[in-house]
Design brief:
alpha+beta; YefM-like fold; 2 domains; three-stranded mixed beta sheet; 5 helices; 62% helix; 16% strand
């Protein structure tokens, strides 16, 4: 929720008036724009690349096997059983 408060908020009047600039800023900055209607959040505009990433993540998270593996990996990391990133990068030649 806190991240939402750091977003750029734009009213519908400003959106209609400055749509081209708002879209250009959105592409340049890569952050979402919260559209408000009568002072209340009503919609979100995000960059197409970010939208595709979100859709892919939702698809991955809807796979019960993937989600179980992810949760198990998080548990292992919290228990100190994870592999340091440097070791993984070294193994992959990065």
């Amino acid at each position: 929720m806190y991240e939402l408060l750091k977003s750029h908020f734009v009213g519908t009047h400003e959106l209609r008036k400055n749509l081209a600039k708002i879209l250009a800023d959105l592409r340049k900055e890569g952050r979402e724009v919260i559209i408000t209607q009568q002072g209340k959040p009503a919609a979100v505009i995000i960059d197409v690349e970010k939208y595709v990433e979100v859709q892919q993540a939702l698809q991955e998270f809807s796979d019960p096997e993937y989600l179980a593996d992810l949760l198990e990996a998080r548990k292992e990391i919290r228990e100190g059983k994870g592999v340091p990133a440097e070791d993984v990068f070294r193994q992959k030649g990065l």
